[in-house]
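Please, structure for the following, as tokens.
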Amino acid sequence: MNSIRKQFGDKNLSYSHSNGYELLEDSQSGAVDQMAGVNKLLKPVFKQDVFSLVKKPEKMGFADQIKFIVKNKFEGELDPGKYMSALWKLAQLQGISLLSGVSVCEVSKDDGIVLAEDGAGEINLEFKAKKIAICTNAFTQKLWSESDIQPGRGLILLSKPLDFEIPWKGTFHMDKGYVYFRQIDGRLLLGGARNKDFEAEKSTDFTVNPKIKSHLKKLAAEVIFPGKSIPWDTEWTGIMAFGKIKTPLIQRVGTKTVAAVRLGGMGVAIGWQVGKELSVLLSKM
């Protein structure tokens, strides 16, 4: 994250060092007992404790079932849309052409040939390259069928501007990290909960799972803002990539082709470093 901030500047990313928080219930109190050990483990890297307990969690206004709130003082938030815009501008300044509106349907990994199709499903474009990088994350098996990639769909809900003051700021997680929320311009952005229907969410279809949508709305009304009515504005899904192990998959997959995929839902946080490692791999071809 610091590398991204250094490259583009906090203002261009709308970066805010607002801390991260994990909401815990009584049944998860064991995590609190392990906090000292985790801090000790991380001390050589951060030089100080990373995690601490919020002394008066009730002031954040969550439901009574939230018994502990763990603070991560090294976490911040940025606007991913502005981040992508900054990346596109940087690519254009480097003379990189960005093509959209077509889908890559086949890669000849040893020959350096890429076939693409238009919106009607017609294969009508062929590209030839000295080197190819496959960076399609959850959709990688279409181009590299042997890859250890398992798609994981994530749902995001965004409320309308709320008519009450939000008593907290920062990025928040709950339910073992599967649920994520934060405020954006007086709205609630809430997402995740794929653990409530793992099998159905192993999908690359951009559709909304009503079971998960209902669960998230219930969390908003009963836990995040108990007793409040939350007017919802819009929703969307994004597809993440997972595998048997949690580390990214960065390797050579053909004579002229490499891949950098399986970012485990951490694309914004680790994508910059993954890209650097990919460039080193490409330079050695």
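Helices lie at 2-8, 10-13, 29-33, 35-46, 80-93, 210-224, 267-283. The longest helix spans residues 267-283.
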